[in-house]
Specification:
Elements: E1 13-15, E2 20-22, E3 57-64, H1 70-80, H2 98-103, E4 110-118, E5 121-129, H3 137-144, E6 149-155, H4 162-173, E7 177-183, H5 192-203, E8 211-212, H6 221-231, E9 244-253, E10 257-266, E11 268-270, E12 274-277, E13 283-285, E14 288-292, E15 296-298, E16 301-303, E17 307-311, E18 325-328, E19 346-352, H7 358-371, E20 376-382, E21 386-393, H8 396-410, E22 414-416, E23 423-431, E24 436-443, E25 455-470, H9 474-483, E26 487-493, E27 498-506, H10 514-521, E28 527-537, E29 540-547, E30 550-551, E31 557-560, H11 564-578, E32 586-592, E33 595-602, H12 618-638, H13 647-650
Parallel strand pairs: 3-5, 3-6, 6-7, 7-8
Antiparallel strand pairs: 1-2, 4-5, 9-10, 9-18, 10-17, 11-16, 12-13, 12-18, 14-15, 14-17, 19-21, 19-22, 20-21, 23-24, 23-25, 25-27, 25-28, 26-27, 29-30, 29-31, 29-32, 32-33
GO cellular component, one term: mitochondrial matrix
Keywords: GTP-binding, Hydrolase, Membrane, Mitochondrion, Mitochondrion inner membrane, Nucleotide-binding, Protein biosynthesis
Membrane topology: Peripheral membrane protein
């Protein structure tokens, strides 16, 4: 039997003397997993899951703010349970994506099934390592739907952060058991007493119940594992009930098709079973199924309470609806409660560099959105960039990571337009006997904003933000929030030095560089998190940008009237820095309607046509200069200006 490395897809080789599998030393394409020749040493393979009744199954997630040690704790748990060899090189084993390894952050929630012997009995522990950045909050919400408890991780050095607060309340509202854990207690600057007091103030957690560990050194991790088994309840399902399975994640394999990750709620699934989707009513035959250990481990059956993968010859990526209920053919079931649909907060156009690659880009987006269901897709077109898509993201980092994954995983060369937020516009509708009626539309692209005479009212999205920081910086942060049209709702101390600010902000004002500026003002000590707070009526205008008197629709933005002139000037300056010089002068203008608010010129590159002239009559030089001037005038009329990819985002940075 051949085995594949899930990271580099290289075949593992069996050593028949030792009966163990390993990756050939000279054929390794990745250094993330089992880079030594002792693959599988001390590692048990379990293929029969029937021996684990529901009472000995625990499903839990690790949730925390970014960089608080979730992936490091997951590594130690994998080592303690002998799922992977104990090796100092094990770092972020569950972070399988290239973008995760490059950036050092978790982007995708990853599942691993662990087998651990506690008090003489083997327990099946299904661990889900979740992202920590607010842009990937949807991954956390999907993970919690498959769990009965969570490990809430807090850095003993940094203390409670904004995303910690958001994750706690998300788990609390889902009625999950919360195990509070203090990580990095071995650091020199650790303040465990102060941080536990913060947790008591914010979450009403008893300081005596907080586990103190060091995930890097492994201190206290095994005791934490015992608490997970003792405190987190087993799943509620039953093997005797009618089979129901919840699809909580999926991915696409070019050889296997759609690989779905399921939480088996009731009953059991076996190879050869025919399962039906409640969403599209289509029936599929199970070709293969198993669990993640952390690689794919095939098994014959999955039982109630367990989490695993299923391959059922599903080739169309659109058929895998995350949150869908699957059941055995010819049975009747009630659908399981799915997830709240992800609400995109940021929209941007994405276009192929070459229009001949449009179909390839469409296929790449379909496969990638299968793995990231929070991205919404709409067909879009641009006079300058041609046919493309307008994608909705949960934030700017989400947009950046998605574009990077398109290039790395699907070799797609794309151009991304300026990011913007959705606006709700009330326009004049059909005319009644006395007056016009009003219709409400949502604008995803500033280019589609109706004529000013048609608009009755405009609303912009607002968010409720949470800022945690030392009180030394409260003056600078308050000024920043007021500058971005923020309204402070509440301020409260969580300990003697740290303060939490609740405020309401227009989403458009925090879209590009608010977080960077906040970190700069507070020397990196502040943390920021936000959640959707609906729409608010505002006075907005569309600012158009013209390159040599030709409007570039992809650069158009909608902003508040009080900031139109400042933004127009700043964007014009940024464009002059991003657009390369040509042999003719380029004018960059920002305008609202027919009124020019700002202008910057990019001076022409000067070619010395007199370099070869030495001596002779002056009329010869005048003739050459006149011919050059006429040529530049002609070039200005017909010349094309290419705008670099990064100019669209750089232009909006303040």
């Amino acid at each position: 039997m051949k085995y594949l490395c899930s990271f580099c897809r290289a075949f593992l080789v069996r050593n028949y003397k030792t009966s163990k599998f390993y990756l050939p030393r000279y054929s390794i394409n990745c250094d993330r997993f089992y880079s030594t020749d002792n693959f599988g040493s001390g590692r048990k393979i379990y293929t029969d899951l029937s021996q684990y009744p529901v009472e000995r199954i625990r499903n839990f997630s690790i949730i925390a703010h970014i960089d608080h040690g979730k992936s490091t704790l997951a590594d130690r748990l994998l080592e303690i349970t002998d799922t992977i060899p104990r090796d100092k090189s094990n770092k972020q084993v569950l972070d399988k994506l290239q973008v995760e390894r490059e950036r050092g952050i978790t982007v995708k929630a990853q599942t691993a099934s662990l087998i651990y012997n506690y008090k003489g009995e083997d327990y099946l522990l299904n661990l889900i390592d979740t992202p920590g950045h607010v842009d990937f909050n949807y991954e956390v919400s999907r993970s919690l739907a498959a769990c009965q408890g969570v490990v809430l991780l807090v850095d003993a050095n940094q203390g409670v952060q904004a995303q910690t607060v958001a994750n706690f309340y998300m788990a609390f509202e889902s009625n999950l058991v919360i195990i509070p854990v203090l990580n990095k207690i071995d650091l020199k600057g650790a303040q465990p007493d102060i941080v536990t007091q913060q947790m008591k103030t914010l979450f009403d957690i008893d300081p005596h119940t907080v586990h103190k560990i060091s995930a890097k050194a492994g201190t206290g991790v095994e005791e934490l594992l015992h608490t997970v088994i003792e405190d987190i309840p087993p799943p509620n399902g039953s093997r005797e009930a009618v089979t129901r399975a919840l699809l909580f994640d999926s991915t696409y394999d070019q050889y296997k098709g759609v690989v779905g990750y399921f939480s088996i709620i009731d009953g059991m699934l076996t190879k050869g079973n025919k399962i039906t989707s409640y969403h599209n009513k289509k029936t599929y035959e199970i070709q293969d199924l198993g669990f993640m250990h952390p690689l794919e481990e095939p098994t014959n059956s999955l039982y109630a309470g367990q989490v695993g993968y299923i391959i059922c010859n599903m080739r169309n990526a659109k058929e895998a609806q995350v949150g869908d209920t699957y059941y055995l053919q010819n049975t009747e079931v009630q659908p399981l409660p799915g997830f709240k649909a992800a609400k995109p907060m940021v929209f941007a156009g994405i276009y192929p560099s070459d229009q001949s690659e449009f179909n390839s880009l469409r296929n790449a987006i379909e496969k990638l959105t299968l793995n990231d269901a929070s991205v919404s897709v709409h067909i879009d077109s641009s006079p300058a960039l041609g046919q493309g898509f307008r994608l909705g993201y949960l934030g700017l980092l989400h947009m950046d990571v998605f574009s990077q994954r398109l290039e790395q995983e699907h070799n797609a060369s794309v151009i991304t337009s300026c990011p913007n937020v959705p606006y709700k516009i009330k326009i004049k509708g059909a005319k009644n006997i006395k007056k016009f009626t009003t219709d409400e539309i949502t604008i995803l692209n500033p280019c589609h904003l109706p004529d000013k005479q048609m608009i009755v009212e405009m609303s912009e999205p607002v968010v409720t933000g949470t800022i945690l920081m030392p009180d030394d910086y409260i003056g600078d942060v308050t000024s920043l929030c007021l500058e971005r049209r923020g309204e402070i709702i509440d301020q409260s101390y969580i300990d003697n030095k740290r303060i939490m600010i609740k405020l309401q902000l227009p989403l458009n004002e925090i879209l590009i560089d608010f977080y960077d500026e906040l970190k700069s003002l507070t020397s990196g000590y502040a943390s920021f998190d936000y959640e959707d707070a609906g729409y608010k009526v505002s006075t907005l205008v569309k600012v158009d940008f013209l390159i040599n008197n030709k409007a570039v629709d992809e650069l158009s933005i909608i902003c508040h009237t009080s900031r139109a002139r400042v933004i127009a000037k700043n964007v014009c300056i940024k464009l002059t820095e991003s657009i390369p010089k040509q042999l003719f002068t380029i004018s960059v203008q920002g305008a609202v309607g027919g009124k020019i608010l700002a202008r910057q010129d990019i001076k022409a590159l000067r070619k010395d046509v007199l370099a070869k002239c030495y001596g002779g009559d002056i009329t010869r030089k005048e003739k050459l200069l006149k011919r050059q001037a006429e040529g530049k005038k002609k070039m200005r009329k017909i010349g094309k200006v290419e705008i670099p990819k990064d100019a669209f985002i750089n232009a909006l940075k303040r």
